[in-house]
Every structure is written in structure tokens, then in C-alpha cells.
Amino acid sequence: MQELPARNLKLVETKPVVPRSESVEAQKIAG
After folding, report:
1. Exposure of 9 in the CB half-sphere (CA atoms within 13 A)
2. How far apart are CA 16 and CA 23, in angstroms?
3. DSSP states of 1-31 as a string?
4. What is the rounded distance in angstroms from the CA atom of residue 7 to the CA atom of residue 28?
5. I need a labelling partner for 21 at 20 to 30 A (CA). Which of 3, 13, 15, 28 fits?
6. How far is CA 11 from the centre of its chain?
7. pTM of the predicted model, to two decimals?
8. Nearest alpha-carbon partner for 15 in 27, 23, 26
9. Ramachandran region of residue 6, left (φ > 0), alpha (ψ -120 to 50) or beta?
10. Is the dihedral of CA 8, 13, 19, 21 positive or negative?
């Protein structure tokens, strides 16, 4: 049961970096 939360934490830690870059690219395309 603890393995799932650990994987979720890793995904959460690695994902935030991608959404930010994607949002910046989206703003550049929209801008």
C-alpha cells in the first residue's frame, strides 16, 4: 500500500516541472 503513495509523490515531484514549461509554451503560442 505504501508503494503507490511513493510512486504518486515521485510523479507529483516530476510533473510540476513539465506543466510549467507547457504553460509557458502555451502562452507563447497564444500570445
Report:
1. 5
2. 11
3. --HHHHHHHHHHHHTTHHHHHHHHHHHHHH-
4. 32
5. 3
6. 7
7. 0.27
8. 23
9. alpha
10. negative
